[in-house]
Amino acid sequence: MTKFTDLGLNPDILKAVADTGYDTPTAIQEQAIPIALIGLDVLGIAQTGTGKTAAFTLPMIEKLASGRSRARMPRAIVLAPTRELADQVAEAFEKYAKYCKLNWALLIGGVSMADQVAKLDKGVDVLIATPGRLLDLFERSKVMLNGVQLMVVDEADRMLDMGFIPDIERIFKLTPPSRQTLFFSATMPPEITRLTEQ
Ligand code: AMP
Q1: Per-residue pLDDT tens for 131-190?
Q2: Are 156 and 195 in contact (CB under 8 A)?
Q3: Of 5, 13, 17, 20, which is best to mutate to test ligand 1, by the most ligand atoms within 8 angstroms of its C-beta?
Q4: Where does ligand 1 bind, in terms of residues with CB under 6 Å?
């Protein structure tokens, strides 16, 4: 049986995973993590509860571990459809990156922009964002997306239900074509297939 230690993750990440008590990766983790680590795009069809958050958070931490953040230039973005989901991703990030020197900001609507802007100014490695708030801050020139190396789209089918697909397409175009994409959806309706083909 595959263990977390077989997946190619660095010791700081493995220590954080061990602290959670998990030693066996779930199916989506076992399949997605090695592919993401070699730099390929991932299309993961996975429901909530399958461990998909760690399937994208762990390789993202590994990829960002070498390198530094710059003011207003995040190196990775995770797009989530709701505040609750963005919060869950942030929690996972906090848990798995605790031995790595990475920082993150949560950009969600309904809370003060001032704190989010202050954090962006200091420099963040990862933005965990809902699409509307991210675009809002971009339009106000508070964040630049041309340094993004890795972009995660979580729960794409819920993004579709909530009307976020045009926002996601816009965000894709604002990031460098060379960025790696990790894309997760529980189902694959035609609109989502079309988006992944782009
Ligand atoms: P998710 O599908 O990402 O929402 O994760 C569902 C739950 O499974 C979360 O509470 C995780 O902490 C937990 N989890 C993630 N990976 C594993 C694993 N390899 N073994 C056991 N539980 C896990």
Answers
A1: 999 999 999 999 999 999 999 999 999 999 999 999 999 999 999 999 999 999 999 999
A2: yes
A3: 20
A4: 22, 24-26, 29, 48-54
CB atoms within 10 A of CB 163: 10
Q: Cα separation of 136 and 125, whole Å?
A: 19
pLDDT per residue as tens digits for the range 115-134: 999 999 999 999 999 999 99
Q: How far is the CA of 146 from the centre of ligand 1 (A)?
A: 32
Cα separation, 32 vs 126, whole angstroms:
19
**What whole-number distance in Å separates Cα of residue 43 and Cα of residue 110?**
30
Report which ligand 1 atom has the smallest distance to the Cα of 22.
20
